[in-house]
Design brief:
Blueprint (H helix, E strand, L loop, with lengths): L2 H11 L2 E4 L5 H14 L3 E5 L5 H11 L5 E5 L4 H9 L4 E3 L5 H9 L3 E3 L1 E2 L2 H10 L4 E3 L7 H10 L6 E3 L8 H7 L4 E3 L10 H15 L1
Helix pairs in contact: 2-3, 2-9, 4-5, 7-8
Length: about 210
């Protein structure tokens, strides 16, 4: 299987991306175990975390065959190469940088760029995006997503990211969200693995 088809299979099992912004390498594996035990299959370590590539490498080794591991806040082509070298297969960005998307696609990795408009969405898809991250979701709404969904190809997956809580997911899903990126309501700096596990189970339950 290719990395993208591996992602597709993992996404089908659980369409939630765990965003571990600020996580440390010495705690990331225990947190990862709680997430995977709860049912998560997509784990992201943002590049503005402490030693992010160390965390990516640890997760990639530990959860090989069990979860897709990637990095977030990847802002340049060098970052794509660094994520791949660490064993990550998913490249996530807050913005729509065509160079980053093209480099990610050329490497056979999964590309999840941030988009906020239909123009950005279509450009990202043309450049090789695997799926789209609607970011920041706080600046959009389910109404905005529904309007985008009316013009985007039906097979395109859009994941709202930013301020998502278990209670707030249903309106987005009804508007056409394929999944979500989960930040502070799932993991915040200082949270124990057990706390993250409890939060993860609440999100899984909200998926229905």
């Amino acid at each position: 299987m290719t990395m993208v088809s591996d992602f597709d299979a993992a996404f089908a099992r659980c369409p939630l991306v765990a965003i571990l912004r600020g996580v440390r390498p010495d705690e990331v594996e225990a947190i990862g175990e709680e997430l995977v035990a709860a049912g998560f299959t997509l784990l992201e370590v943002p590049m503005n975390s402490p030693d992010p590539l160390d965390s990516v490498a640890r997760l990639a080794k530990r959860f090989e065959g069990r979860a897709i591991i990637g990095a977030g806040t990847v802002l340049d082509v060098d970052g794509v190469a660094a994520v791949q070298a660490a064993g990550g297969t998913m490249v996530i960005s807050p913005n729509m940088n065509p160079r980053v998307i093209a480099a990610t696609a050329a490497a056979g990795l999964v590309s999840l760029p941030g988009i906020a408009t239909p123009s950005e969405a279509f450009f990202a898809l043309e450049t090789g995006a695997t799926a789209l991250k609607l970011f920041p979701a706080e600046a959009a709404s389910p109404v905005v997503l529904k309007a985008m969904r009316a013009v985007l190809p039906k097979t395109v997956r859009v994941l709202p990211v930013g301020g998502i809580t278990p209670e707030g997911m249903a309106p987005w899903t009804a508007a056409g969200a394929a999944g979500f990126g989960l930040g502070g309501a799932l993991y915040s700096v200082g949270a124990t693995a057990e706390q993250v596990g409890a939060n993860a189970r609440a999100f899984i339950a909200a998926l229905g």
